[in-house]
Amino acid sequence: MDIKQLHLLVDLADAGSLSKVCASRGIAQSALSKQIAGLESDLDAKLFYRTGRGVVLTELGQLIMPRVRTLLADCDQLRTDIRARADVPSGPVRLAILASVTQFLVGSLFQQVRRDFPQIELRLMEGFSGSIEEWLANGRADVGVLARYGSQSSRSDETLTTDELYLVGPAGDRLTASRTVRFDDLAGVPLVLPGVPDGLRMMLAEGARKHGIVLDVAVEVDSLTAMKEIVAGGSGYTILTRQAVLAELQLKRVQTTLIVEPTLTRTLVLATSVQRPLTPASRTVAGLIRKLTERPGKGDRRVQGVGEVKAA
User: Fold this and answer.
1) How confident is residue 25, by pLDDT bands cut at 50, 70 and 90?
2) How far apart are CA 224 and CA 296, in angstroms?
3) How many CA atoms lie within 13 A of 82 on its CB side?
4) CB of 22 closer than 8 Å to CB of 28
């Protein structure tokens, strides 16, 4: 048993699929199966069950997984501490980023890291804000880009940009055909939203309580892609920033209307984990994110490449 095998064990446990791990690592499925079989043989224990949808950890696998993650984190930290003595940003940085801004930020960030800081190992995790907060809290992520809604805030937040929220509906829809829609008019509208707990859900629930209306959460979806597909297919509405549906607007698959009375906002923030001291590499990545989200010559900050888009 070696460190590489333990990394493989964690990747497979997280992905739950041999094919996904093979695709991310660029190896054949037969080779991956052989490595897992070798690890199980070495330990004289079965770690995974095969199912029709992939693989799941056995009871023993679930029992040892926290210790495996701790061991790998300690190894990463040891390597980072050694490299940090040379004052060169290096080592792994686990970046957790909001799904709706990934396409506008990640490409440029990876290019700059590879060009200017080749010893930094950037590891990307994508999700909704609730998941990102959890990853930062338990140390699975070092740096996070997540959203706060309305008056939500945390002492550790660093504001990057604030954007208005829109009701998103399918192309040709009557409700989203006008420039604005009142918050009260959302009563009874079938909404496709992230699951609880989520900052957007909390803000909407508080708004509905104040306005004396009932919101219809038709389906909870923890996937931005699935959320937009459901809306584009005409099965419901969602609430997002325009940048989150930029591609769909350009393809005329959806249309948006600004929510008013009150206007709802989402603030993009930068946060870091408190589980371990920030390394030079993590501080470097955080600094690059600040620069990439700053509009030159303006007092506010925005993800570059995100401008106003004419309504579909």
Assistant:
1) confident
2) 29
3) 6
4) yes
Helix, strand, coil content of the chain in percent (nearest 5):
45, 25, 30
Condensed to tens digits (0 to 9), the pLDDT of residues 205-228 reads 999 999 999 999 999 998 899 999
- Listed in sequence order, the residues at least 6 apart from 233 whose beta carbon sits closer than 8 Å to its beta carbon are 170
Q: Which residues, 6+ apart, have CB-to-CB distance to 239 below 8 Å? A: 165, 166, 167, 168, 191, 193, 200, 204, 259, 264
Architecture of domain 166-263: 3-Layer(aba) Sandwich (3.40)
What are 237's two structure tokens?
A: 């509405």
Instruction: Determine contact, residues 161/293, Cβ cutoff 8 Å.
Output: yes
**Start-to-end C-alpha separation, the chain:** 56
**Average pLDDT of span 216-245:** 93
Q: What is the pTM of this model?
A: 0.65
The CATH code that applies to domain 87-161+267-292 is 3.40.190.10
Q: Which two tokens stand for residue 208?
A: 């509905």
Which run of H or of E encompasses 203?
helix 199-211
Taking a C-beta distance cutoff of 8 angstroms, is the pair 259, 166 a contact? yes
The pair of structure tokens assigned to 239 is 């609430």
List the structure tokens of 188: 């009874």
Amino acid at site 290: R
